[in-house]
Each structure stands twice: as C-alpha cells, then as structure tokens.
Amino acid sequence: MKTNLSIIPIAFILLFTGCDPGIKPDNKVVDNKVTKDPLPSWNNTNNKQMILDFVAKVTDSSGKDFVPEKDRIAVFDNDGTLWCEQPLYFEFVYSFNVMKDIIPKHPELLKKPEIKALAEGDKMTFLKSGEKGLLEVFALSHTMQDIDKFRETAKNWLDTATHEKFKKKYVELTYKPMVELLEYLRANDFTTYIVSGGSSMFIRNFSDEAYGIPSGQVIGSMLKAEFVQKDSTFQIKLLPDVFHIDDNVGKPVGIYQFIGKKPILAFGNSDGDLQMLQWTTTAYSV
Fold first, then answer.
1. What is the DSSP letter of 25?
2. Closest C-alpha to 265, from 3, 67, 44, 63
3. CA distances (Å), 4 to each of 12, 91, 93, 270, in order?
4. What whole-number percentage of the chain has pLDDT above 90?
5. How many CA atoms within 13 Å lie on the side-chain side of 161?
6. Cβ atoms within 10 A of the Cβ of 8, count?
7. What is the pLDDT of residue 204?
8. Residue 46 predicted with pLDDT over 50
9. C-alpha angle 259-255-242 in degrees, rounded to nearest 5
10. Model's pTM, two decimal places?
11. If you average pLDDT over every residue of the chain, what do you get?
12. In this structure, are residues 123 and 130 in contact, taking their beta carbons and an 8 Å threshold?
C-alpha cells in the first residue's frame, strides 16, 4: 500500500496499486517479548506510526488528548479506499448485470439509445452517454425491483460474480492494510463508518462480511422512497429520484445528518473525499 498524501494525523488520502498484497505479519521482539504489529501490511512507516501515535494519545485517559469512546468516530470512503474500484465501480458492474434481466421485461427501455447500446453489448456507445447513462442504469437497476428482490439479486451477485482480472469475488477484493486498520481501531473502541458515493442499499449487503461494519453504520448515496400498501401488505418502494448524493460536499453533510457528530479520523482516496477530510480536520467554532 502506498500513501499518496497525508493531510494531518487525523485525515488521510490514500492511493492503492493492488488489492491484497498478502504481506505476512511483522512481529517484533521488545525486551525479549514478541509483540504483534497491529498494522503489518502498512509499508509507509511514517503514516503508520502517525496512526499508532494518534490512537495512543486519544485512548490515554490520563492525557490531554483523551477522547471518550462515544466520540471516537472514524469514517472511510469505500471505492478505492477499502476495496478496488477499477476498471469501473463495482456497483455499476452489478447494475449492468441486473439490466440483462430487466430490459427483456421492459422493451420500452430500448427507445433510449444508451439502454439499447447496453442491451446490444455496445459498451463504447453506452459509455459515450457519460454520467447521464451511468446514473440512468443505476436508477433503473435499483428501482425496477422491490427492495426484497434487490437484496436477493445483490447478495446473489456478490456471492457468485468474479472480477475479470483478479478472478476473485468482488467482496474478496478488499485492501488488506485497511481491513487491518478497521480491526485495530475497533479494538481501541472506535466506531467505524463507511461514507461512500455508492448506494447504502448496495453496500449494506456486504459491509459486515467484508469489513466488520454493520449495515446501520453505512452512509451512502440514496434514492427517494415511499411507504406503500400492496394488497394486504405494507412496503417501502424506491423511486428513481435522488434523495442524497454522498460525494464531495454531500459526504460531510451526510455524516452530520446521519451520525450527528464530527469524526476524529477520516480516510479517502479521491477529490470526492476532500470535503469530508477538510471538515474532519477543522476545529469546531466556539
């Protein structure tokens, strides 16, 4: 793992070049005793030590920098920070897969040139539609199924689909240094959250398995929803309209709206995480 730029000790922007380097644990001998390195896969010793020192300070109840457990909030971007994001965000790969089943049932969608190109496997033409086409496929794949069906198809895809290059399930393509960091922070009574531009409803299907982060600690982009009655049952129906985009300025806003307090640690890998890092490193005004 390479660390491209450290902002200050409590906010990092990271650059990864691989998925799982498979580095062996680095145990050290201190005073004739073997001590286990909590972050054995971290190659950047300066930033590694910065994190260890920071955690030591905020967990020392006798020190001036002590932070109570309830305020030890750490937030992490997902795509490119906790798992791979190339050659395309994995949630979009899922959406393309789901559209193969949706389009035949809704031939009217073929009137849209970008959807027609996608159905014909013409990726180049589809990608020329840019963000508009991607967001349209995202909305269709997420809302033309009820929430139970979405959960079923997402879990099935995560359980079976494999990455073209790595030949592994997508949930296996996590960054080992970051998984170690999550475990280390929780061992020191931090609460860890995902704050992602991906959708909450997708990430919640694997966050616990992949990272040990419960679904209730996932903040992501969200579609509008409504409470509806269908026959004698009551359900939540998703709508193809945006409720919250959890990217750029949306990240600190989402943290405030859903957590209610500022984190003391933040990690990201792109300019979409910048405002989250800026807010984390800005002191509260008095």
1. P
2. 67
3. 9, 25, 27, 10
4. 74
5. 20
6. 11
7. 97
8. yes
9. 115
10. 0.87
11. 88
12. no
d(CA 184, CA 59): 12
Q: CA 117, CA 128: separation in Å to the nearest integer? A: 10
Tokens 């998703």 sit at which residue? 238
Neighbours of 31 (CB within 10 A): 5
Q: Quote the tokens at residue 134.
A: 């991607």
Nearest to 95 by CA among 173, 167, 174, 202: 202
- Give Cβ neighbours of residue 131 (< 8 Å, ≥ 6 apart): none
Q: What angle do CA 232, 237, 242 make, to 5 degrees?
A: 165
Is the predicted pLDDT of residue 21 greater than 60, yes or no?
A: no
Q: Please give the span between the terminal C-alpha atoms of the chain, in angstroms, as a whole number.
A: 38
